[in-house]
Amino acid sequence: MTAAVSPGLPAKMHALVAEFVATPGAVEAAVAEFGSPAHLVFPQVFAENLARLRGQLAARVAEFRICYAHKVNQSRAFVVAAHAAGVGIDVASRAELDSATAAGFTPDRIEVTGPKGEALLRELVGTGVTINVDNLWELERVAALAPPGRPVPVLVRVSGFAGTPVSRFGVPLHRVDAALTLLAGARERIDFRGFAFHLDSGEPAERVRAVESCLVLTERAYAAGLSPSVLNIGGGFRQVFTADATAFDAYVHALRESLLGRGEPMTWGGNTFGFQLENGAVHGTPVFHKYANTVDAERMLAELLDTGLDSHGGRALAQVASENLLQVWLEPGKALVDHAGITVARVEFVKETADGSTVVNVDLSRDTVTPADQEVMVDPILVPAAAPVAGANRGAVGVFVAGRLCLERDLITNHKVWLPRCPVPGDLIVFPNTGAYHMDLSAARASMHALPPKVAVTQRSGTFRVCRDGDYRHEVA
Ligand SMILES: *Cc1c(COP(=O)(O)O)cnc(C)c1O
């Protein structure tokens, strides 16, 4: 098979990241200094993503706040970049709160979401951070713990909107009256700022319904004598992984054919990726469908803000928020780090397995480049070793990439990927766009392997600089 006709899943890359990867010796120098494998983060790309979302909001709503959802990546450089840009931050643990504070975030720019226990709530009340309350127990505890004379800023997260799958998070709509009663009776202790929601799916229609519900609740809150001023629409703005939707579709078509026994085998160990095989046909939605998305976060946000609300005579969401003097808050995570991180590993060896497959073994494990149990449908990039190694095969080759754990399941790709030539020991493999959850969500220290170091890469006047993520400092451009 030649490179031109091999199925491929080319990655969309930011120009700055693509230039870094293509700069001879640049990736090799980074791992020579910090070790392989390594995660590389690009705070300038983060800042661009942020500026784009901000531009869409500024063009439409009077008052808004973007809170970077820290949990998407543990990188300090991203937190520093968010701070430098003047936005807020959404933290979901004590450690994330410390990280935000260390980067300079003051309490008025910090929102705390996620499930919180008694110990964390005790630390939060009185500090001035906004607590995005998940449930009635939290709300009662905040009211009980609040120090006299310093009302705790609170958002109430709600869930259970029509047509939305049940969520473990949030106060269900049918219990919101209990929350309002509590809030109305605790005005000296709780500064109720408004309603919040975060949907798992990112489906635009679901979000619009949730917004309409929150607008109704906001009116109910006013009727109860409260004065909410925030509408928090959560995160979930999508990433675009693919550089070529047609190639993506062609790959998936070939994959489906291979599941039916037509053409070359393309999956490891009989994996069907959530497809169902019935009566000689392939049905269902694959687990990896998000990698096919082509609508970026900026467009998703713009379209959301422009959506006419049936509940408000078709007036645009942005207009309704402004008319009601509601600040629009959002908590994007993955949208801000989209294209702002890559992971580099080194090829240790290449082998053939009993079924004739070629398996490329690298020095990291699946959990450090893959969020939870997903299959990442983005081609890795082969970066040849600095010194050309004798014996490198010529021509495209379909391989599976395997990790360094002695577990059968430590396959980094369960789908076949085509590389321009067969890798050899010493080559580097770059996994594109790993910044959102891929690096940090599931990473474990199995077999006592250390977690990969994190390295920040910046470009000034055409020159790349790398430093330890923890040492990153913001410089005014
Ligand atoms: C995870 C999370 C986010 C960020 O979600 P993304 O999909 O990364 O944008 C925002 N808000 C809350 C409450 C979350 O739990």
From TrEMBL:
InterPro entries: Ala_racemase/Decarboxylase_C (IPR009006), De-COase2_N (IPR022644), De-COase2_pyr-phos_BS (IPR022653), Orn/DAP/Arg_de-COase (IPR000183), PLP-binding_barrel (IPR029066)
Location of the active site: 406
Name of the protein this chain belongs to: Decarboxylase
GO biological process: lysine biosynthetic process via diaminopimelate
Known cofactor(s): pyridoxal 5'-phosphate
GO molecular function, one term: diaminopimelate decarboxylase activity
PROSITE patterns with a match to the protein in the record: ODR_DC_2_1
Keywords: Decarboxylase, Lyase, Pyridoxal phosphate
Ranges where the Orn/DAP/Arg decarboxylase 2 N-terminal domain occurs: 58-259
Domain of life: Bacteria
